[in-house]
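[job 0417] fold request received: MATE family efflux protein
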Amino acid sequence: MTFIPQIQISSRGAGQTHLLGVYMQRWWIISLVTSSILFPIYIFAVPVLKFLGQQKDVADPAGSFTLLVIPQIL
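[job 0417] inference complete; emitting structure tokens
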């Protein structure tokens, strides 16, 4: 279960249903900002890892893996 459904359930239980839309908007903004920051890191993982001194035999498979898991951040 993610954070937003827990907040929505708590709001509904506390009788603050007027705040559900506000929480959803905040969640979308936070998710958009976070994914915008992580997306380039995922795309350029191999050069970043090599720049940080990681060995080529580790950086290449890690870069391939990060390309496969990009949909999880969206």
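[job 0417] notes: The radius of gyration is 18 Å. The chain has a mean pLDDT of 83.
[job 0417] exit 0
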